[in-house]
Specification:
Layout (H helix, E strand, L loop, with lengths): L1 H4 L4 H6 L3 H17 L4 H15 L4 E3 L2 E3 L6 H14 L1 H9 L1 H8 L9
Antiparallel strand pairs: 1-2
């Protein structure tokens, strides 16, 4: 699956992942873009916030109400493609990140039970 991570059909790749998995990887791309000062990072975050504002699912975590920011496969793929095209060094960094490696090893698998 690692070889397909850099290929153009990112949407299919992210569709195979759980929403939390694809969101975690996409947010790693956004974090890398933010560190590089790329203004597109803010646009991607704004899109994620619009989705969470439209999502009526709310959780109580530590007494606070939290709306989850889970990205769609299309949104994650957009961040993926943008980073691949504009910041190949950032793309490589995220691809080699332990989180990404773990997700690529078991996309869509249920989370480990404690």
């Amino acid at each position: 699956m690692q070889a397909s991570f850099a290929q153009a059909d990112a949407e299919t790749l992210y569709a195979q992942m759980r929403p939390d998995q694809r969101t975690a990887i996409a947010l790693e791309f956004v974090r890398c873009l933010q560190l590089g000062g790329d203004p597109a990072a803010e646009q991607f975050m704004a899109q994620a916030e619009q989705v969470s504002a439209a999502d009526e699912k709310v959780e109580v975590i530590g007494g606070a109400l939290v709306t989850p920011r889970l990205l769609t496969a299309q949104q994650a793929a957009a961040v993926h493609r943008y980073t691949y095209d504009h910041h190949p060094d950032c793309f490589t960094h995220v691809m080699q990140h332990p989180l990404t490696q773990a997700v690529l090893a078991a996309p869509g698998d249920p989370p480990a039970q404690e």
